[in-house]
Amino acid sequence: MLRKIKNCDFTLFITPLILTGFGVVMIYSASMVLAVVEGLESNYYLLRQTQWFGIGLIGFLICTFFPYKTYQKFIPFIVISIILLLIAVFIFGDVRNGAKSWISIGPLNLQPSEFAKLGIIMYLASVYSKKQSYINNFNRGVLPPLILTGLILALIVAQPDIGTASIIFLIACSVIFSSGIRFKHLFVLVAIGLLVVAIAIPNMITEERLGRFAGAYAPFESPADDGYQLIQSYVAIGVGGLTGEGLGQSVQKLGYLYGPHTDFIMAIIAEEMGFLGVAITIGLLVTIVLRGIYISRKCEDSFGALLAIGISSMVGIQAFINLGSASGILPITGVTLPFVSYGGSSLLVLLISMGILNNIAMTVKRKEREPVPVKKNDIPNNPFNKGGTRWSS
């Protein structure tokens, strides 16, 4: 055990825990007034998130020391379970914010689409790692896994949860691109994706979604309606300045800003902790993403490399969409900020993912420390002797 702990990647082990701990503090600050208004105890959201942190921490530690290659044996079970959960949402699910995305199991409220993120990463990483020898064959090597991916995306879009579906689509794109497929095949997939979107858009356009675009790109034309949320976010960000108003001193959380503890928690961080707080939070998220990409480049196993790329992409894409919504770069989607926003299912999946990424990093570090026998005809650092994914070094 001590040897395993010694092989841990300190950055990937500590950074997610720091972000989550910081998130718990900010969730309490952002939600205590909201909880009282809703007739709950002021620490209601704090306790709920702390409970999920505890569950996620157990998952994080287990996955850190559980060999990541073993997951390949359970891929069929994982995929079938995700599809069944997504179907169950339509039968037993609860409607929240206009989407039927939740299942209540006793005191726990689970969002199956969050687990679908990690499930898709595992599935695509496993399938494409096995297809490396014929990855250039579009019909045999590239296309089959996309059918199942499309089915899962369709189930999530039907909830409707466009934000999560967009994240999963972009994660899938990152894994597929990194698998080493030909660029011409990539262009074919992009063309197919654009065609599907063009066909689906007329059925997805609603007055509410159009309002989100108007609110994002012309908020001051309807300051009391579509643009209200973004304007309140701008106020919070602007008031914070360099060092913020101080922890717990936000005004926007007093009923002005909707969802201050969920998808707009960064606005509260900006107001209370200032630019420095925002910069540190984003810096920690970027650290996780870059470290994950570095691990994927060092991993000699295709499954581990693609798994690391998928997990890194999940954190980076989700963070970008959340920050884009809070700053007006993107329409408001309801996507949470990784590790920081309130949300049990999201936090659990992220911490489990970080455990898996840690295990890949441990494997890479252990391989680097093992003495490699040099054969007579070996040429050190010969790039032609190395195969694998597009990001292999």
Number of domains: 1
Mean pLDDT: 84
Order of helices and strands: HHHHEEEHHHHHHHHH
Biggest sheet: strand arrangement: 1-2-3
Number of helices: 13
Count of distinct strands: 3
Are there runs of 5+ residues with pLDDT below 50, and where? 376-387
Distance between the termini: 30 Å
Q: Give a quick account of the main beta sheet: strands, pairing sense, barrel closure.
A: 3 strands, antiparallel
Structural write-up:
With 393 residues, this protein is mainly α. The protein has one domain (2-368). 66% of the residues lie in helices and 3% in strands. It contains 13 helices and 3 strands, in the order ααααβββααααααααα. It has a 3-stranded antiparallel beta sheet with strand order 1-2-3, with helices on one face. Helix 7 runs antiparallel to helix 12. The longest helix is centred in the C-terminal third of the chain and has 34 residues, at 265-298. It is globular and about 55 Å long. The two termini are 30 Å apart. Residues 376-387 have low confidence and may be disordered.
How would you summarize the topology of this molecule?
Blueprint: H1 2-6, H2 10-37, H3 44-64, H4 75-92, E1 94-96, E2 99-105, E3 108-110, H5 112-130, H6 138-157, H7 162-178, H8 183-204, H9 207-217, H10 228-240, H11 265-298, H12 302-327, H13 344-369
Antiparallel strand pairs: 1-2, 2-3
